[in-house]
Amino acid sequence: MQRLALILGLTLALAACGESAKTSDAAKEQAPSKPSEAAQVAEQTSEAAQTAKQEVKATAKEIKDDVTAAADMAAEKAQAAVEETKEVAKDVKKQVESQALPATMFQEGTHYEVLKQPVRTITPGKIEVTEVFAYSCGHCFNFEPIVNAWKKTLPDYVQLVKSPAIWNASMEPHARMHFAAIALSVQDTISAAAFNAIHRERKPLSSQADIAKLFVAAGVDEAKFNETYNSFTVSSQVNQANARARSMMISATPEIVVDGRFRISTRFSGVESQSDMLKVANFLTNQIHHGKL
Predict the structure, then answer these.
(1) CATH of the domain spanning 103-289, picked from 3.40.50.300, 3.20.20.70, 3.40.30.10, 1.10.3290.10
(2) What is the distance between the alpha carbons of residues 92 and 109, in angstroms, rounded to a whole number?
(3) For 162, 185, 216, 278, which has the most beta carbons within 10 A of its beta carbon?
């Protein structure tokens, strides 16, 4: 009887252990594995990072392509402008050379005059060709592309200097604009913009504020422009230009003075066009260079 009770107790104990083991296994199956979850999160993060990386690369490539295309287009336009300028220079050179004004026919009093009192030049070591002009002058506006193209054909020993005329106080702002542009290294940009504003857009540029807008558009700080425009240096240059033009006996614009001694004007009977002025200037600079004048 005792043995039977013992066997029965052992049987019940073994059954209980079996149930406990099953419960434990079930719990293991149901309970999520923390290392597995971490691995899954890491894998998802890696995939997201890879996707983002690919998107960044694609975007960078698009930006690079756009920048490259824009740079290529700008380069093409710049090259086209250079080629156009070269062609203009060639045309002007041919036009000047083909004018019916043989060198043997250039005469004092007909094609140029000798100044009674030579004017000191401002380009040592060079034969100076001074163009006296005015931004408000329609003839100067027409002469601008011609003289700029001619400038590219000049030999090393010749220097073109542009000097503003100042007949009255109303012309002083333009003279200040000219010398301020030189001081701020934007002369070509401002000159073209000023001629365009005055003669095509009908803006007189009579005030410092109006002129300032051109400089700001050219990338110059407005405060720096105002400081330069009103500076002692620019004021001195304006006064000197005025004195030089009067000493050169300038009677109209544009006119040319070679080496501070020879004045050329379309008002002379033998000079019928602006191109004629340049042809006479070529003749005079060549004569001076070879010691004949």
Answers:
(1) 3.40.30.10
(2) 25
(3) 278
Spell out a b/e string for 107-139, using b for 16 or more CB atoms within 10 Å of the CB, else e. eeeebbbebeeebebeeeebbbbbbbbbbbbee
pTM of model > 0.70: no
DSSP state of 170: G
Task: Check if the beta carbon of residue 193 is closer than 8 Å to that of residue 238.
Answer: no
Distance, in Å, from the CA atom of 196 to the CA atom of 241, rounded to the nearest integer, reads 23
Q: What is the pLDDT of residues 46-103, one digit of tens each?
A: 666 677 667 667 666 766 676 566 556 655 655 665 566 566 556 655 555 544 445 5
Residue ranges per structural domain of the chain: 48-98, 103-289
212-236 in b/e burial notation, b at 16+ Cβ within 10 A? bebbeebebeeeebbebbeeeebee
Residues 29-45 have pLDDT tens digits of: 444 445 566 667 566 66
In this structure, how many other beta carbons lie within 10 angstroms of the beta carbon of residue 184?
19
